[in-house]
Specification:
By secondary structure, the chain is of the alpha+beta class. The protein has 2 domains: 3-52, no CATH class; 64-153, von Willebrand factor, type A domain (Rossmann fold), CATH 3.40.50.410. The chain is built from 4 helices and 7 strands. The chain has helices spanning 3-15, 78-94, 123-133, 143-153; strands spanning 19-22, 25-28, 34-40, 46-52, 64-71, 99-106, 110-112. The strands form 2 sheets. The protein has a 4-stranded antiparallel beta sheet, with helices on one face. A 3-stranded mixed beta sheet has the order 5-6-7. The two termini are 13 Å apart.
Length: 160
């Protein structure tokens, strides 16, 4: 998937919302494919969370490549980081035999923790988890860079 295609999907999804505005919180109305929440800080600045769900059928007879994006920005410390790491380990343990994963960390930079998509139980993922655990949570999350990196992470030609 090209960067342009991914950004087009995100842009289309964002335009498809109708927002219900509460004093400082806006919540996307019912949409099976997307949900967005924004928050306006009293001191200025608007923050958002966007959840996109695929609306295409999945062909179950082929394997699946899963790109895991792990937030390592400065806000992700202590219990937040511990919970996220526990969730990641639970997710990896739940994947079936037909799944391959690649782990990337995102903050000011987006950095691959392993080079290729591999089985969740592969020793490479253990090494990637160790690299992730040693990554110092600094800076903010560069979402634009993360989206470009995510789009480029998948091979152009694949049957997965």
């Amino acid at each position: 998937m090209s960067n342009r295609s991914l950004l087009s999907i995100v842009s289309s999804s964002l335009m498809a919302f109708s927002l219900l505005v509460v004093p400082s919180l806006a919540v996307a109305q019912d949409s099976p494919d997307a949900r967005m929440v924004t928050f306006d800080k009293a001191t200025g600045g608007t923050y958002f969370a966007l959840s996109l769900n695929p609306n295409v059928p999945v062909n179950d007879d082929r394997g699946t490549d899963v790109l895991i994006v792990f937030d390592t920005s400065a806000s992700q410390t202590g219990l937040y980081r511990d919970d996220a790491t526990d969730s990641l380990q639970t997710m990896l343990a739940s994947f079936g035999q037909d799944v391959r994963v690649k782990l990337i960390a995102v903050d000011l930079k987006t950095v691959a923790m392993n080079d290729d998509f591999v089985a969740p139980a592969d020793a490479t993922i253990k090494q990637a988890m160790d690299k992730l655990a040693n990554r110092v949570p600094l800076g903010s999350t560069d979402m634009a860079n993360m989206l470009r990196t995510a789009a480029d992470a998948f091979p152009a030609e694949t049957d997965r």
